[in-house]
Structure formats: structure tokens, C-alpha cells
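Comment thread on ticket #2218

A.B. wrote:
> Attaching the input chain for the structure job we discussed in standup.
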Amino acid sequence: MSETVKPSQGEDEYFVREDAERKRKLALKVKQETGQAEAKRLRDLHFMHCPKCGQGLQEVRLHGTDVDVCFACNGVFLDKGELETLQKVSETKPGVVTAILNWFQPGTEGK
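C.D. wrote:
> Ran it. Output below, let me know if you need it in another format.
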């Protein structure tokens, strides 16, 4: 007769921990894939669309910087760092752009 050997309590705990860790990793992977898929879906849905009216944005070169313009509502949108780039250009070439940039800077109303 063959005898069935019961695993010890330590072995049971080991396999339970291993199984729980495997399930945790799988759940984390599914969460990341779902999160990435949702982030990609939102990016594809909104990329280069006007946040004001939803129409498509066009890139227009302004003083060497590409800015996003909506010709439907006349909105002008800047990516990170573009305002500072335009500000540097406006310091050397004063004009309309300088006036607009001064509008966005606190404490420059009287200049």
C-alpha cells in the first residue's frame, strides 16, 4: 500500500505565499496593461484637439517656436517650455508677442 504524505504546515504556507505572490503579480500586470491601454486611448482621443472646442489643432511657427493653433475658435496653445522660449525671443524683439507675454506674467502690467 502506498501511503499519502501530507505536506507540513511550513510547506503549505510556502505554497500559499507563492500562489498569492503569483496572483498579485498577475493582477498588477493586468492593471498596468489596462492603465496603459486607457492612457493610450485618451491620448489618441485628445491629441492635437482643441481643449476649448474639440476641433483639430494645427502647428504654426511663431518666432522659431511651433505653437498649436485652433482655427475654429482662434485658440493658441503652448506646450511645456514654449512660453519661456517665446519670452526669450520677445526680450530681444519687442512687439506684440512681448505685450501678450507680459499679460501672463504677474507684476508686469505697467510695463
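A.B. wrote:
> Thanks. Noting for the ticket: The two ends are 100 Å apart (CA to CA).
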